[in-house]
TrEMBL record:
Bilayer-spanning residue ranges: 20-38, 50-74, 86-108, 114-138, 150-171, 191-212, 224-243, 249-270, 282-301, 313-335, 372-391, 397-418
Keyword Transmembrane attributed: yes
Alphabetized UniProt keyword annotations: Membrane, Transmembrane, Transmembrane helix
Residues annotated as signal peptide: none
Protein name: Uncharacterized protein
Amino acid sequence: MQALLSFDQAPPIAAPLRFFLTAPLFAILAGMLLLWSGPELFASRWTPSALAMTHLITAGFMLPVMLGAMIQILPVVAGANMPRPLLMSSLVHAAIVPGALLLTAGILTSQPLALQLAVLLLGIGIALFLGAAGHALVSVRSTNPTIQGLKLALIGLSVTAGLGMLLAMARDGSFALPIRQLTSIHLGWGLVGWNLVLLAAVALVVVPMFQITPPFPAWFARGFSWAALSVLCLWSIAVGAGWPWPSAFLAGAVVLTVAVFAALTLRVQHRSRRARFDASQHFWRLAMLCLLAACALWFAADSLPALAERQEWPLLCGVLALLGGFMSVMIGMLYKIVPFLVWSHLQNLGDGRVMAPNMNKVIATRQVDRQLYAHVVSLALLLAAVIWPEWFTYPAGLALVLANGWLLYNLLTAVAFYRYQCLQIAAQSSATPAAQGPC
């Protein structure tokens, strides 16, 4: 797969980087919301503050990271060049950031105007991205599983966004919709149809390349994305039709796809040729273990009525899946993608006359390790806060703010490193940094 990568087709560094820098700010806001709401946030998964915090993580943190990753990956991996990527990324970013903020405010306050503006902005931003990405991919043949996964992930994003906008518009009671059923379908498509399918497609490239592992098995690479979306479609139909037994069986199949991906990724990662795991690999391992734990908890609640009756288990499952699983793996990806972006763009600026510094110098290893510890502490405190909210809610909120503030600091350090090296290269070779993006 690495032989197929076309780094000379990478977009300007500012295109994906603006999304990556935004994401930690929303996680910081999630921690501040936890501090403001207090233990009441954990009273139920349906409280306005719990729903708002969920969307700060999903629409505020996860969506920008995955959009930024796709902007970088599409031309490099698939040879799918978006027209005017810097302009497109600027417009998409300018729409989804205020859209996510308004969505959170609208959920918290139940203000129809905020929700309507959120739907408008998020709809415009996602539609622009889907149009640009779809236009770039439409003429690209699915010659490898990653390209196939990227195309299918766009379908998942379309369905997720459509359902989300419908639910947001229905919160004021204007539409007579089965809110809980649609919310479950929206959640399933967001986590599995969009994030998991895209993550699996990206993992086929980044895990072997950055973690020095064997490739994923051919059967998994060829069939996982199709299998995940097929099962998800059947489950959505069963839920929408109100078929209890088929929907329960297919829900288990959907959860099983998550478990298969997590278990297989751990197995591939275990065969890494690295003598010692770095922080990024530990983020991936933590994420896969949390996803497996979330799947195990779901199956336990499905089998044990006493557990299913407890209000804590959906919240525990959500924390494990969102913050422990997807958020952890995305942070691990950022710590590889951002230094690599900086290094590769500096290499292009040097034009063979000035060599870029080693990728490991972009962000100090000790800073990444410390942020990993802070993230683990925040995750542990959040899990404890679900069970004992009176004791752990405020420490968990503070830890979440600190951990993601540290992440933002590390990413800004990479930006400062890039700008400094741009000036150094320009001074040594009379190159023009603007050719590859603003320094």
